Amino acid sequence: MATSGEPITIKKYANRRLYNTVKRTYVTLEDLAAMAKAGEEFIVHDNESGEDITRSVLAQIIREQETKHGQCLLPINFLRLLIRFYGNSLQMLVPHYLELSLETLMREQEKYRHSMAQAFGVGAFGTLEDQARRNMEMFERALAMFSSFARRETQSEADKTTAPGPATGRPSQQESDELRHQMEKAQQRLSPLSEKDKS
């Protein structure tokens, strides 16, 4: 049995079947999706090579969820913007930015649920959907701003190709400070949303 706080190990066999080593039973991607929604931590290993394939399995779960009617969380424009950062010198900052933004959204979601359940009863979540839509729009705008900064940074590097000195491909201190400032502004835009609902 997995100890408290230790991720559950899932083994993937050559026949593509997934095996939960704690419950000692085969599971499906739907089962893993339910575990993720419930906040259960798990890691997936290829049974033959021992390779950690958690990322690819999670991506497969997201792909299946996205194909279900009415469950699309990743707008096309968001995906396009995200693709632009692969291989970019700012790529290393994107995962932290996305993780921080989604964690903030999750915290705010719980506040909305709690306050609306107290004020109107359990079923009154219409405004939560509206707020989530506005949050996603703000998130897309923040990522677009982030992307435009990356394009400026790429153009700036191209302009410097004739300048003397080694090209490191890394953003300058000024560019890093500007990016950090933009990330903080986007974070500040997301966090006050719960205060608006309260008023």
Description:
This protein has 199 residues and is α+β, with helices and mostly antiparallel strands. The protein has two domains: 8-67, no CATH class; 76-198, no CATH class. It is 59% helix and 8% strand. It has helices at residues 29-37, 54-67, 76-84, 94-120, 126-159, 173-190, 193-198, and strands at residues 8-12, 18-20, 25-27, 42-46. A four-stranded mixed beta sheet has the order 3-2-1-4. Helix 3 (76-84) packs parallel to helix 5 (126-159), helix 4 (94-120) packs antiparallel against helix 5 and helix 5 packs antiparallel against helix 6 (173-190). The chain starts with 7 loop residues before the first strand and ends with a helix.
What are its keywords?
199 residues, alpha+beta, 2 domains, four-stranded mixed beta sheet, 7 helices, globular
Question: In terms of topology, how is this protein built?
Answer:
Elements lengths: L7 E5 L5 E3 L4 E3 L1 H9 L4 E5 L7 H14 L8 H9 L9 H27 L5 H34 L13 H18 L2 H6 L1
Parallel strand pairs: 1-4
Antiparallel strand pairs: 1-2, 2-3
Helix pairs in contact: 1-2, 3-5, 4-5, 5-6
What's a concise summary of this model?
This protein has 199 residues and is an alpha+beta fold. It contains seven helices and four strands, in the order E-E-E-H-E-H-H-H-H-H-H. The protein has two domains: 8-67, no CATH class; 76-198, no CATH class.
Strand content: 5-15%
Q: What are the secondary-structure elements, in order, as H or E?
A: EEEHEHHHHHH
Strand order of the largest sheet: 3-2-1-4
Query: Stretches where pLDDT falls below 50 for ≥5 residues?
Result: 162-168
Number of domains: 2
Q: What class do helices, strands and sheet pairing give? A: alpha+beta
**Approximate helicity band:** 55-70%
Please state the CA-atom Rg, rounded to the nearest Å.
21 Å
The whole-number mean of residue pLDDT values reads: 77
- Tally of helical runs: 7
> What oligomerization state is this entry in?
single chain
C-alpha end-to-end distance: 47 Å
Number of strands: 4
Give the overall shape, derived from the CA principal axes.
globular
Biggest pleated sheet:
4 strands, mixed
